């Protein structure tokens, strides 16, 4: 009797264990299928992103005519793609750094960091843009770039002699030729530079161009405060305080010794 009862209990336990295993397995499969379907649905969900509306060359301004919205499955959307709700605050009004084909997504890395609609947007309030001609010599062998800080020096006639004096110090270069500080690759060569100066300094530069030769000295952005006012002419071109080695100060005469005493 006891043996039959034990057998019955074991059989019932086996049935319950089997049912529990089936239930847990079936529940796990259902959850896995649900999660998989959810991920598929999420990937297939369409997201509106900003793309090129036509073939675009580098330098084109991004606006409603050069960009449009396109639906794309979320699974294929680049993490840095521009959504419709962020267009105005990220890339609108900026210039394209690279050429794109029609339909290509426009990423923030594709555009310049500077936003402007016209050149005057680059001129700080209170300043004026003025362009001066340069050559390979006066442009630091062509190595000047937009954003550089320079000093302007003028060489003028002072009677029969010439004199070189500082005209302006710590002037910012706004453009070199048509090259702007906008992240776009620089165009080949230039023969003029555009500076941002005060109205009075603009007048000084214009007058200096008519009566003197303007030269440029490049300075580092870490040194914007130092200046100099001294003019240079033939009289002080070479510093009169020259270093004389000690060996040249020795007397070249003979020492005469008499009676073992000098």
Descriptive account of the structure:
The chain has 262 residues and is α+β, with helices and mostly antiparallel strands. Among the domains are: 46-115, Type Iii Antifreeze Protein Isoform Hplc 12; 124-219, no CATH class. Helix content is 23%, strand content 26%. It is built from three helices and ten strands, in the order αββαβββββββαβ. Strands 5, 6, 7, 8, 9 and 10 form a six-stranded antiparallel sheet that branches. It has a two-stranded antiparallel sheet with strand order 1-2. It starts with a helix and ends in a 43-residue tail after the last strand. Mean pLDDT is 78; it is low at 252-262.
Quick description:
By secondary structure, this protein is of the alpha+beta class. It is built from three helices and ten strands.
